[in-house]
Amino acid sequence: MNPPSLRSCIGTWIALLVLLALTCGSSYLRLGALNLATNLAIAVAKALLVLFVFMRLGSSSTMVRLVAVIGVTTLTLLVCLSMTDFAIRGW
Amino acid sequence: MTSASSPVATGDIPLPPNAVAARGSSYLDGGMTLRSWLLTHDHKRIAILYTLSITAFFFIGGAAATLIRLELATPMGDVVSAETYNKLFTMHGVIMVWFFLIPSIPSTLGNFLLPLMIGARDLAFPRLNLASWYLYVGGALFTIAAMLLGGVDTGWTFYAPFSTMFSNTHVIYVLAGVFVVGFSSILTGINFIVTVHKMRAPGLTWFRLPLFVWAQYATSAILVLATPVLAMTLVLLAVERLFGIGIFDPNLGGDPLLFQHLFWFYSHPAVYVMVLPAMGVVSELVACFSRNPIFGYKAMAYAILAIAVIGFLVWGHHMFVSGQSMYAGVVFSMLSFLVAIPSAIKVFNWTATLWHGRIVYSAPMLYALGFVGLFTIGGMTGLFLAALALDVHLTDTYFVIAHFHYIMVGGSVSAYLGGIHFWWPKITGRMYSDRWARFAAILLFVGFNFTFFPQYLLGMAGMPRRYHEYPPEFQTLNVLSSAGAVILALGYLLPLFYLTWSLLRGPRATANPWKATGLEWQTSSPPPEHNFDTVPVVDSPPYAYRPGVISPAVVQAREGTG
Amino acid sequence: MTASPAPALGIAGQFEDVRQRHAAATLGMWIFLATEVLFFGALFFAYSIARAQAPDAFAAASRHTNIVLGTANTAILLTSSLMMVLAVRSASMEARRTTVMLLVATAVLGVAFAAIKLTEYRLDYLDHLVPVLDFAFDPRYERGARIFFGFYFATTALHLLHLSIGVVVVLAFAWRTHRSWSPELPHSIEIVGLYWHFVDVVWIFLYPCLYLVARA
Asked: In sequence order, which ranges of B72-125 are alpha helices (DSSP H)?
């Protein structure tokens, strides 16, 4: 599996720093609930950049990608099924 | 086909043409020094290190159980104080769950057999394997320290805020012990998954794998995904206890149900860690001792995976009366009913495997048949508990205790013992007295039912769990249960004697004394250090017993249409 | 098939060839990272529940974190990931000296992160924001702020522990590469890189959770 090109590495790094500036800067705007949504979305975007460019998840073997998906899915299950309790308690 | 009149027919299992039963040295010849054992990379030696460790803990946990049953023989709390009783059932649970059951089949039989069954020379990461044993020992030391310092009284479930705010015992030591042993599980899981994916012998496709391997694989997936959540939960408990951070304690702004969700997210899949390997063992035993291929092999493999997956979705059934939302209760109840389906498929298929078989009532078979019956009873009572309305009455009573002991003891421990007896010749190169072994198996079955069946009745009558005294009208059933425990204990102690005798004086075993299929039987007993002189190439389906009579699934595999 | 040729090639005997060893090690590291996703994921989940139950207190408490140091640290860690992936790249091209320098750069940035973090801890202590050490906060939000800072110290300490282990391993590989080249080094460094990037990903999510709750 080949490591990313020099351009990809630098380009991704710049993108990550831009996203960092965005997430920090947008937090100083009064956007209410949108602040949390924006910050989460930007965090996810940064994570995906690291995963797919630096960690080459896109060109890894099927099994590796399955492992990544299953890890995140299991965590999602923990959160979602727990929320059937937390979100609805007291109805 | 064969003309043998002996129950175990000879000659109907063809060896793969290029497998050579290795002769000469065994893995046990490579030195008996402490160093050769404590610094070994050999998965077989590590398996034995584990076996010795978990056996020691089994008897420590059993000693706690003995004191519990002694106390419960009379209605009054006259053997130990209430506080001591709390410590007894806590240590019994902690030890039996984390230091016996969870490592039992995977770290002993799994470690020894997995590479052999797939034709590999060792696991993918032998040093990680040794590290996992040392982590087990480290965790064990913390837990022993807690015991010596006076024990812990929180219950093995460590419910907060009692464990974080009110218990005056050495909770942190046990939390540390379980945390460390959890990493032992995780490393084992990583090792097994990578090994099964990357190190199978040529021709050994997924649907030619023994069901024991499928079971270890699914178990490893559970270990890898669930245990880290437990690890974090224990960290959070420690943070709350040590630093007064209100994560779970409502007085400090926390949510006690958060603890329960996190804890049971691990602890429910953990019970499938305890039962899936047992099911894998039972498949091997039932096939071999009915001289039939497993009925519905593919369904069995898919059922194993289904149990593992659905097992992650049902944890809320431990919390029906905890104050979680009713909606959550409904969701978890429905999902809990669902998990019974693949389990039932397995029970049906084992039964169908027996059909028209030539059944051999050897000791391993007795344990396997015991598993099928006792697991069925335990599983059905699980369905009762999954029903919301019934659970309101039965929760935290002896009904629950009987339910999980039927599965974990009647089921998993029986299967573990069955596996030990089945693969004993392979592991040690010796045979044991089948008469004594069968006697122990029957004693165990009888003692087990006398111990735990009355507990179903006690639970229905309303006797709560974790109480050291009870109303006098419950005494008769409790005495029955305690008496049964004596017989059960005998059943567990007997193997110590005849198996030790077998080690010292038992007749030497051949490579395949049971005439079983499977690659582990194609090498000598015991195997050489590198398992096989010549790595076999596999070209036939698993469980090729009575080759003239095969199930459709086996035909499909052979024709490549499976 | 005969006895494994692996020992002659210097590969552990349980493997048949280098390709199998590569594939096994890579898969093993990714599975380990999946366990870390669940380990930290459970922590983030607990944090989310706590925050949902005391949103105003969490907002007030988060404003007392040091945004300058936190943001600088994030930039440092992201840059360390760049150094790491460039090290993997130069290792694959067998550029030994460049690889060593990039690995050292990665470790240096990691140490810089740790130094800044510890400085932050000291500043937090002086501001009475450490829960067991003389904690003091606006009484309206004191209970929730204590929980926030409990999470703050627990999560950053855990992250720091993982980072420190990463620094040690990266330096060990820098030393190994410096001593002598061996053919499996590029792959081993790639695996170390996977771990390092993961530590970065954890921080990517930690940063907004701790520093950006309510800056407006």
From this structure: 82-94, 102-105, 111-118
- Token pair in block for residue B325: 């939302």
**List of chains touching A (3+ CB pairs within 8 A):** B, C
Contact predicate B491/B438, CB 8 Å: no
| φ, ψ (nearest 5 deg) of residue B440 | -65, -40
For residue C109, what are its two tokens? 């940035």
Domains of chain B, residue spans: 45-559
Chain B to chain C, count of Cβ pairs less than 8 Å apart? Answer: 122
Residue C196 lies in a domain: yes
Cα separation, B224 vs B244, whole angstroms = 30
Model pLDDT for residues C110-160, shown as the tens digit of each residue: 999 999 999 999 999 999 999 999 999 999 999 999 999 999 999 999 999
- In CATH, the architecture of B45-559 is Up-down Bundle (1.20)
| Sequence-ordered list of residues with C-beta below 8 angstroms from that of B430, at least 6 positions apart, any chain | B424, B502, B503, B506, B507, B508, B509
Domain that holds residue C185: 17-211
Residue to mutate among A60, A81, A83, with most B CBs inside 10 A, is: A81
Kindly indicate whether the ipTM for this predicted assembly is greater than 0.90, answering yes or no.
yes
Coil, strand or helix at B397: strand
Max intra-chain CA distance, chain C: 75
Distance of CA B143 to the CA centre of its chain: 20
- Note which residues in 171-200 of chain B have CB less than 8 A from chain C: 186, 189-191, 193-195, 197-199
- Please tell me the distance in Å from A91's CA to the nearest CA on chain C: 16
Angle in degrees, 0-180, between the axes of helices B326-354 and B256-290, rounded to the nearest 10: 10
Which helix (H) or strand (E) segment holds residue B497: the answer is helix B475-505
Instruction: Measure the CA dihedral C107/C112/C117/C121, to 10°.
Output: 120
Helix, coil or strand: residue B464 = strand
State whether the Cα torsion B281-B285-B288-B291 is positive or negative. Answer: negative
Residues in chain C closer than 8 A to A3 (CB atoms): 85, 88-89, 92, 190
Q: Are C143 and B246 a contacting pair at CB < 8 A?
A: yes
The Cα B393–Cα B387 span in angstroms is 10
Token pair belonging to B175? 């939390």
Q: Tens digit of pLDDT per residue, chain B (562 long)? A: 333 333 333 334 444 544 444 455 788 887 788 888 999 999 999 999 999 999 999 999 999 999 999 999 999 989 999 999 999 999 999 999 999 999 999 999 999 999 999 999 999 999 999 999 999 999 999 999 999 999 999 999 999 999 999 999 999 999 999 999 999 999 999 999 999 999 999 999 999 999 999 999 999 999 999 999 999 999 999 999 999 999 999 999 999 999 999 999 999 999 999 999 999 999 999 999 999 999 999 999 999 999 999 999 999 999 999 999 999 999 999 999 999 999 999 999 999 999 989 999 999 999 999 999 999 999 999 999 999 999 999 999 999 999 999 999 999 999 999 999 999 999 999 999 999 999 999 999 999 999 999 999 999 999 999 999 999 999 999 999 999 999 999 999 999 999 999 999 999 999 999 999 989 998 998 999 889 877 788 888 899 887 544 444 444 444 444 3
Q: What is the pTM of this model?
A: 0.93
The C-alpha angle C168, C172, C174, rounded to 5 degrees, equals 115
Query: Pick from B504, B395, B525: which is nearest to B460 by CA?
Result: B395
C165 found inside a domain: yes
What is the DSSP-derived secondary structure letter of residue A74? H
Question: What is the C-alpha separation between A16 and B115, in angstroms, rounded?
Answer: 44
Is C198 a domain residue?
yes
How many domains, chain C?
1
Torsion angle of C-alpha atoms B436, B442, B448, B449, degrees rounded to 10? -170
| CATH number for C115 | 1.20.120.80
